[in-house]
Design brief:
heterotrimer, A alpha/beta (390), B mainly alpha (316), C mainly alpha (303), A: Rossmann fold, seven-stranded mixed sheet, five-stranded parallel sheet, 19% strand, C: 303 residues, mainly alpha
Chain lengths: 390, 316, 303
């Protein structure tokens, strides 16, 4: 034992001596989201949001004069890809912090790695329970499902006060869906409704015959689905085709325009709780929406807004570090910057596209306003949008 | 479980099972004539679905080389299905040429044919991914015209439902089974195929052009595979380039259970596994996946030739 | 040196790990049996290690043993794999050829679904944040390397022993071997169990290396990869799996700039190799050697 520990220690020290390097200019922030695999549909929106943030903040003289640069690493759709992306960003690219990963499932796998290496991570779309508690370096700007989900149920009750029987379905192999469904189940109980059937499926399923017929047979007034866009959308399509006429609530996984090609016309009417509204009235959001509309001719989606916010939190944090220490980031040691940055993130508030937010001591986000949107598909069933319901 | 629920589960089982059956039909055809498992069948299944989609809808998404492309002309679904299946048949022939013929001419170990077909599957699936990305492509709801999307039977308060597309798949698998059975049993081509299956070298001595009939087999298998993929695609959407490959694994269980080489066996095996999966109570729904393979293992232990297969003699 | 280890350390460790898994396939192949069961034991070994390292119930043991909990995990994985392999192997190895391959495929799938559903394995979500044996990922070379060397030595000695000769006899002609008094089933099960133990131990070593463990570690896709390593490298020599693994793991990495195209090339390599290199690369090399030798010897006769 002694010999191998010796060797390891020597090697580790010699390697870490390479680490005592200064932060490069422009300051690098890592973006580790899914650029490939079927989760790429969420990742796409995140990259766009982060890109707009990079342009916006560099236009406002970056970190007190030093520009920022986003370094992308593809996590793919699985845990191993996320871990690799994180490792590359931390060790090879030497970023000051990481925005990512896309899925809560990936976050549970990759965040501990970053935490151990003392690199701050801000999750732009991880909403499962327990993520900020993974470690002191882990935070997020995506409000946990526990806060957001009940809004959708309340809206459903408003649309149909006679709701009594509820069917709840969730993807059991996804950490986020399994977490979200617990919240939905509790909310249903608290609102004195009855969950008459609880069905499980996998994100990889395509044949939902068993689940859908069970829901039909149970004669429910409300269906709540926690899954990702591909599986969830397919489930909704099969439910509607079998003749289910009641209200459908989708979880955060439905929060993407990439749901539309899956269920087409059948997507119409789905209620999805939102952490973001393009109408939010603050200067940052107005600039963000204007930039997005100019390029894409439509309103920005939630995932883009959250990615923008994550980058913003890092940039403002870096500015605060320079103010507090009186030194330029580029003259500080990387390890020191990472630790100091992590400390400042939890202080103060930020005016972001999501509204005014703060990060609590665990790194979890406090957000004031939430919304519920309803999907409206056009006559052809191809183009749709999320319309905020008042 | 009351009578209505039983009936619903039964119908679900037939519904789920006919998907497996229609996949397995093309799969087992190659085994029954050539004695090898063509792992590229899943890829041809997938390819067929994409081809039919391209012809019938033609709109591609954000990933891949052909991103955002909209093909300017579309055909009706039945025409697209026919063309798509024919092209898949040709793909099947291509697979035979690239992966199987060179091995046959070298007299190679059948194991290598397995690996070779896997390699071809890998290439095909990734080419598809490269071209059109990995997102879901769905057929519009009215592919079958104005038929209602589902049929409902009321039993007083309760009801039993089944989606129309699933019934179409079931009907088609029975139809194909009947047609194949007729072709192989009663036509000259069928007789030649049976001769090749029995003993290829004797068949060639008798003047049958073995290579040509093997080509026919692969064309037919590809045609069936492509058609199956398109039909399944109308039901569940095309869930990415790997959607056929996942059926490939369960398909193994289906054809072994039904009997390696038996065509009615493929349909029987598919329906049995579908029924077994449908009757699993929802608390244990995650174990559904294992049913097919537990059956496979059990069949291998007790009766390796499956329900309708021929007993394999160990030749010394 | 540090730069190389930093950038390629992960790759080197993966090479060693995949070579070991290819070798776990090699043992049953020595008796002529194609078993695709390795991923099931690999996943099992990984879970055992992951559970021992994370579960609260074992916290007391962990504190007491310190770093020694890691080797204990390897041993535990090996023992459990052996037991399971005996239970499964004795009935399964009565099957031959493609039926055995199918049976092992079924076994892997059943294991995968079981892991997907048990509480203790974290269900479908898996186990996260597995404690690390080393700070740096490339340090795992110190774990996989010695195991690989030990395994190669073991195979070398085995092939030259009486047992190894029995394996060869069974591979060449099982019926004849039986007629000569060799209990084929016993040796086949034995080879199967050894392969399973190796896969289990590699799994236990890999769990900390990969940080997380879930049912996706043990799938049919993995069997296909291991099979490809052995077939392409050569199934008759102990260096074959090594060579095959090195080639097929390194190739996608070297081709990384090509991104999507590299999987296509992987597939093309599989097809070409099975057609033109049926004996694998090692087999092709030895054929080349023999033909060169023949040329040389023939020329010597020209006097």
């Amino acid at each position: 034992m002694k010999l191998s520990t010796c060797i390891t220690m020597i090697l580790t020290f010699s390697v870490s001596s390479v680490y005592a390097a200064n932060v490069s200019s422009p300051i690098q922030i890592g973006i580790a989201v899914a650029q490939t695999s079927n989760v790429a549909l969420f990742g796409q929106e995140q990259i766009i949001g982060a890109g707009i943030a990079e342009k916006y903040f560099n236009g406002k003289s970056g970190v007190n004069g030093t520009r920022i640069k986003l370094v992308m690493q593809d996590t793919g759709g699985d845990e191993a890809g996320a871990i690799n992306a994180f490792q590359n960003l931390i060790s090879k690219e030497k970023v000051v912090g990481i925005v990512g990963p896309t899925l809560s499932q990936q976050a549970f796998a990759a965040d501990p790695v970053a935490n151990r290496l003392k690199v701050p991570v801000i999750g732009p779309s991880n909403t499962a329970k327990g993520i900020p508690q993974i470690g002191e370096f882990i935070g997020r700007v995506s409000a946990p499902v526990a806060k957001v989900a009940p809004y959708a149920v309340r809206q459903a009750m408003k649309q149909n006060p006679k709701i009594k029987r509820v069917a709840i379905l969730y993807a059991q192999n996804d950490a986020f869906s399994s977490s979200e469904t617990v919240t939905f189940q509790e909310t249903v109980k608290n609102m004195k409704l009855q969950t008459v059937t609880l069905q499980k499926f996998m994100t990889t399923d395509t044949d939902f015959t068993t689940q859908a017929t069970a829901v039909l047979g149970a004669k429910v007034d409300l269906v709540i689905v926690s899954g990702l866009a591909a599986d969830g959308g397919n489930l909704v399509k099969q439910l509607r085709q079998l003749g289910y006429m009641g209200i459908i609530i989708g979880g955060n996984g439905f929060n993407s325009a990439n749901l539309f090609p899956v269920c087409g016309k059948n997507c119409d009417g789905i209620l999805v709780a939102q952490a973001y509204s393009p109408e939010a009235n603050n200067p940052t959001n107005k600039a963000f929406v204007a930039d997005y509309r100019a390029t894409y001719k439509k309103d920005p989606p939630q995932f883009s807004a959250q990615a923008f916010t994550a980058v913003q939190v890092f940039v403002e944090g870096l500015r605060k570090v320079e103010a507090a220490t009186g030194k330029k980031i580029t003259q500080m040691d990387l390890a020191v910057v990472r630790t100091e940055l992590n400390k400042t993130l939890r202080k103060g508030s930020y005016i972001t596209p999501l509204g005014e937010i703060t990060l609590d001591k665990d790194g979890d986000v406090n957000q004031k306003t939430f919304y519920v949107s309803q999907i409206k598909m056009d006559a052809g069933g191809k183009v749709g949008k999320f319309v905020i319901v008042k | 479980m009351d009578a209505v629920q039983f009936l619903q589960n039964f119908i679900n089982g037939i519904s789920i099972g006919s998907v497996y059956a229609i996949f397995a039909l093309g799969y087992t055809l190659v085994f029954s004539i050539l004695g090898i498992i063509n792992f590229a069948h899943g890829a041809v299944f997938t390819l067929g679905a994409y081809l039919t989609y391209s012809l019938a809808v033609g709109r591609f998404g954000i990933g891949g080389l052909l991103a955002d492309l909209q093909i300017p002309f579309q055909f009706s679904f039945s025409v697209s299905l026919l063309i798509g299946s024919i092209l898949s048949g040709l793909a099947g022939v291509l697979v035979e040429r690239c992966a199987f013929r060179p091995l046959r001419s070298r007299g190679a170990d059948p194991l290598l044919a397995l690996v070779s077909s896997l390699g071809v599957a890998l290439v095909a699936v990734n080419v598809i991914q490269y071209l059109v990305g990995s997102e879901i492509y769905s057929f519009p709801s009215d592919v079958y015209g104005d038929i209602r999307p589902a049929f409902v039977i009321h039993f007083g308060e309760k009801l039993v439902v089944v989606r129309t597309v699933q019934m179409v798949i079931f009907a088609v698998s029975l139809l194909v089974l009947a047609l194949l059975g007729y072709m192989i049993g009663y036509t000259r081509i069928g007789k030649a195929l049976r001769a090749v299956a029995e003993n290829a070298s004797t068949a060639s001595l008798l003047g049958i052009n073995v290579d040509r009939f093997i080509l026919y087999t692969f064309f037919l298998s590809g045609f069936l595979g492509g058609m199956a993929g398109s039909l399944v695609g109308t039901s569940f959407g095309i869930a990415g380039p790997y959607f056929g490959v996942s059926y490939g694994l369960k398909g193994l269980a289906v054809i072994v259970m039904g009997g390696l080489g038996s065509i009615p066996g493929a349909v029987l095996g598919g329906l049995i596994i579908g029924l077994a999966e449908a009757f699993v109570p929802s608390e244990y729904s995650a174990y559904k996946e294992a049913i097919a393979f537990a059956f496979l293992f059990a069949v291998l232990m007790i009766r390796p030739q499956g329900f309708l297969g021929r007993s394999q003699m160990q030749k010394v | 040196m540090e730069e190389f280890l930093q950038n390629y350390g992960f790759l080197v460790v993966t090479l060693l790990q995949q070579s070991l898994l290819a070798l776990s396939l090699y043992f049953p192949l020595m008796t002529g049996q194609l078993s695709l069961a390795s991923p099931g034991f690999y996943a099992l070994g990984g879970y055992i290690a992951a559970i021992m390292l994370t579960v609260d119930g074992c916290a007391g043991v962990r504190d007491y043993l310190g770093w020694a909990i890691f080797p204990l995990g390897w041993v535990a994985a090996g023992i459990v794999s052996a037991v399971l392999a005996l239970l499964v192997g004795i009935p399964a190895l009565r099957l031959r050829g493609i039926y055995l391959a199918l049976g092992t495929i079924a076994f892997v799938e059943i294991m995968r679904v079981l892991f997907l559903n048990m509480e203790i394995t974290g269900g479908a979500i898996g186990i996260f944040d597995i404690p690390q044996l080393f700070e740096e990922r490339w340090s795992y070379i110190l774990v996989f390397g010695p195991l690989l060397i030990a395994t190669l030595l073991f195979i070398y000695r085995l092939e030259r022993s009486r047992i190894g000769r029995a394996y060869k006899a069974i591979r060449e002609d099982e019926l004849a071997a039986g007629a000569m008094g060799i209990n084929a089933t016993r040796y086949k099960v034995q080879a199967f169990v050894i392969g399973a133990i190796l896969a289990g131990i590699v799994g236990a070593m890999s769990a900390p290396f990969l940080n997380t463990w879930n049912a996706r570690q043990g799938t049919f896709d993995a069997s296909v990869s291991y099979l490809a390593y052995v077939l392409i490298g050569g199934s008759r020599s102990l260096f074959g799996p090594l060579l095959g693994a090195t080639l097929l793991v390194a190739l996608p990495e070297l081709l990384r700039p090509l991104k999507d195209a590299r999987l296509i090339i992987n597939g093309v390599v599989l097809v070409l190799a099975s057609i033109y290199l049926p004996q694998g690369i090692v087999g092709a090399m030895s054929r080349l050697k023999r033909s060169l030798f023949k040329i040389y010897a023939a020329r010597g006769d020209d006097k």
